[in-house]
Specification:
It is found in: Cytoplasm. By secondary structure, this protein is an alpha+beta fold. 49% of the residues lie in helices and 12% in strands. The radius of gyration is 22 Å and the shape is globular. The two termini are 27 Å apart.
């Protein structure tokens, strides 16, 4: 048993097909992305687009009713969506990782059950796994359990069909169990308290569980430190990097539009239009070059992640470390480049681009908000410590 359904690599046809689907979906979202951001309400209609497009079922193997896509294809879809609507791209990114818990934590005999139900309903998977909160607790109740506790930053839980919750089982030497909770289960309460600077439609508010009934079949499995299952964390971080890259690309495209729309040129310059001003061209050249470097590294690790995932149970601790460190490098440069791009595009778009209705600020607000998910300095520490001493950080939901 290979412990993975993703045993092949994507074809060019697959990549081209889903790039086009993601781009079409993104452009539909872009029509009113700023207005929806201002309204700051849960994205029910937007998520229907993810379902109708097929992106919700992209990574589900075809034998279980899905589209049989690969991780790199899904990660590219996240990047493309982020150019147009980073909040919905975040929900897709988290969904792909949460749904993959079926493979990472469940016995293969249960894959057909969970994937079949998810594919049939085009389920979106939210999460309640934030490790900096006290753990959720499962207590025995007859043959099953009762789930209690609260999690902040439960992305997609309030809008998803199911929530992946990681909870301690309350026994001596407590295990952490990956558990699936349906959105409308009795005792599930969404606080509606997500009111951040950016990523406003990512449905990342708190969720509380009050004596929620959990059947034995709702438990996917134990969250441990076996190398293959812990690839979920580098996978999540890889999703972040693609999200940030997409935000940078979107900011550059919007800045280009605004620059071309500007009238005339600077009074002390010699160019007839801002687009021909050497200082404007220099800034674009610098930001485009740095973004292209991040793109190259992201493409490299998207493809390498496909290959390591395909190894399944043969994945070693060294394989896992290589992926962790390589993706951490990408996370560092993607974070810093996207922040710089979203900040510096104002240098070439001028004071008129700061008007609220223009919406250029959405890119900076989104990257500034999500890049604080976990400190990028600790990613630098992971990379530097491993290079100097060979040290590897403890396995967590952040490393």
């Amino acid at each position: 048993m290979t412990r993975t359904p993703w045993t092949t690599l994507p074809t060019d046809d697959e990549t081209e097909k889903w790039d086009a689907v993601a781009d079409e979906t993104g452009r539909l979202l872009a029509r009113d992305a700023l207005a929806r951001d201002r309204a700051n309400v849960d994205p029910e209609g937007e998520l229907k687009l993810l379902k109708d497009s097929g992106l919700a079922n992209l990574l589900i193997p075809s034998q279980f009713g899905g589209h049989g896509g690969h991780w790199s294809t899904g990660l590219r879809a996240v990047r493309i969506l982020a150019r147009h609507d980073a909040s919905i791209a975040q929900i897709l990114s988290y969904h792909l990782a949460n749904q993959a818990a079926i493979v990472f934590f469940a016995d293969p005999s249960r894959w057909e059950h969970w994937y079949g139900a998810s594919a049939k309903g085009s389920w979106l998977w939210g999460d309640a796994v934030n490790p900096v909160d006290p753990d959720l607790v499962l207590t025995r109740d007859g043959e099953g359990y009762r789930l209690n506790g609260r999690k902040r930053f439960a992305t997609g839980a309030s809008t998803g069909d199911v929530t992946l919750a990681m909870a301690a089982d309350g026994e001596p030497g407590a295990r952490i169990l990956a558990t699936v909770v349906t959105r409308d289960s009795e005792g599930v309460e969404f606080a509606g308290d997500w009111d951040a600077l950016g990523q406003r439609l990512s449905a990342s508010g708190s969720v509380e569980f009050h004596d929620v009934a959990v059947e034995p079949g709702d438990i996917l499995g134990e969250v441990g430190e076996e190398p293959y299952s812990t690839l979920v964390t580098p996978g999540v971080q890889l999703g972040f990097a693609n999200l940030y890259l997409g935000i940078a690309e979107g900011a550059l495209e919007r800045a280009r539009e605004l620059t071309l729309e500007r009238r005339g040129s600077w009074l002390l310059g010699t160019a007839e239009h801002y687009s021909r001003d050497p200082f404007v061209q220099r800034v674009f050249g610098e930001l485009l070059s740095r973004t292209a470097a991040v793109e190259a590294l992201a493409d490299r690790w998207n493809a390498r992640f496909d290959r390591v995932i395909a190894r399944g149970a043969d994945v070693t601790a060294d394989d896992r470390t290589e992926a962790e460190i390589g993706i951490a490098k990408l996370k560092v440069v993607a974070t810093e480049t996207a922040l710089e791009v979203a900040h510096r595009v104002y240098e070439v778009t001028g004071s008129s681009s700061t008007r609220s209705h223009v919406g250029l600020d959405i890119y900076w607000r989104n990257i500034r908000t999500h890049s604080l998910h976990d400190p990028v300095d600790y990613k630098k520490l992971e990379v530097g410590a491993n290079y100097l001493t060979g040290d590897v950080q403890p396995i967590t939901l952040y490393t």
